[in-house]
Amino acid sequence: MGILEKISEIEKEIARTQKNKATEYHLGLLKAKLAKYRAQLLEPSKSASSKGEGFDVMKSGDARVALIGFPSVGKSTFLSLMTSTASEAASYEFTTLTCIPGVIEYKGANIQLLDLPGIIEGAAQGKGRGRQVIAVARTADVVIMMLDATKGEVQRSLLEKELESVGIRLNKHKPNIYFKPKKGGGISFNSTVTLTQCSEKLVQLILHEYKIFNAEVLFRDDCSPDEFIDVIVGNRVYMPCLYVYNKIDQISMEEVDRLARKPNSVVISCGMKLNLDYLLEMLWEYLALTCIYTKKRGQRPDFTDAIILRKGASVEHVCHRIHRSLASQFKYALVWGTSTKYSPQRVGLTHTMEHEDVIQIVKK
Ligand SMILES: Nc1nc2c(ncn2[C@@H]2O[C@H](COP(=O)(O)OP(=O)(O)OP(=O)(O)O)[C@@H](O)[C@H]2O)c(=O)[nH]1
Ligand SMILES: [K+]
Ligand SMILES: [Mg+2]
């Protein structure tokens, strides 16, 4: 039996197994098996066709956004509208066959936007250019899932399933579970909260399925078996995703209103240039970039030229942005803003900066 067949067998068995107390161990085990086979499926195959020709676009700018969607939802039209790059758009499917990068300039940041070929059901298993597209999506900071507002919701759940099956977790946090494999001592299991979805026995069963017999496990949240499996397997990407419903010029006001109220969703029309400003605002929020302003001694901060960094960046990251050798000449920095208790406060290289902080660097 091939891996695909095994996966489909297990999926069928999960579907027909009733979810209750008596079956929870069986289901947990099936899920662990499923995750294992999917991982095998993703191991790079040796055939030439799986090479990412035309997909290896250099990362540039302050952040990367990937456009994922079915064919002809308007991805290329969107790229051509928002950036100075033109990507061919047409009414037939699979107009775009490679990865086309463009740049959105917004609030002083350069956001790399990637137009990609449309993907279809079965993409994760290599249908169309699905694998390459998904590989690019994994490298993004935010995914825009573009949907055709005139088509049903099934598109959205199909795409979610494809991304989910290759370890991309959309709008989810990393499960709060401490997990450390050990050389001996068996499995030590603890939790700081009451667990309603997992138990010590289930955790042990799942670990045995992965041939792990010695480990330390601590649940800090009431996590599900799937979340626990994600932690064991590792290699998961937790990514913000914005659902963008395009072509609202084609649907009723009531329908627009309904879609616009969905969580993590924005409605637009590329054709009529509707709501694009709001989409940019949302995208900016989802990127959660940190803008830092610099200040010279005795002068006012320069608010015209922000240094743009990813969330959680340190003073050291700021130094590297200003000059390659600045960190080695660094004595201390003065920081004004929400990251410090006092304004200004003297901080070292490891201090974590927050959005709109002002920094003055003092050299040795
Ligand atoms: N009515 C309407 N049509 C649109 C809108 N945006 C794009 N289109 C049309 O939809 C068709 C497909 O657009 P593309 O930009 O090529 O779509 P794509 O998602 O890049 O398609 P592939 O590259 O084939 O995956 C084109 O005929 C566009 O003119 C819109 O907001 N409203
Ligand atoms: K198209
Ligand atoms: Mg296209």
UniProtKB/TrEMBL annotation:
Residues 288-363 form the TGS domain. Gene3D superfamilies: 3.10.20.30, 6.10.140.1070. Residues 63-288 form the OBG-type G domain. InterPro entries: Beta-grasp_dom_sf, DRG, G_OBG, GTP-bd, GTP-binding_2, GTP1-OBG_CS, P-loop_NTPase, Small_GTP-bd. Keywords: GTP-binding, Nucleotide-binding. Interacts with RWDD1; this interaction confers protection to polyubiquitination and proteolytic degradation. Interacts with JMJD7; this interaction is direct. PANTHER family: DEVELOPMENTALLY-REGULATED GTP-BINDING PROTEIN 2. Catalyzes the conversion of GTP to GDP through hydrolysis of the gamma-phosphate bond in GTP. This is Developmentally-regulated GTP-binding protein 2. It comes from Castor canadensis.
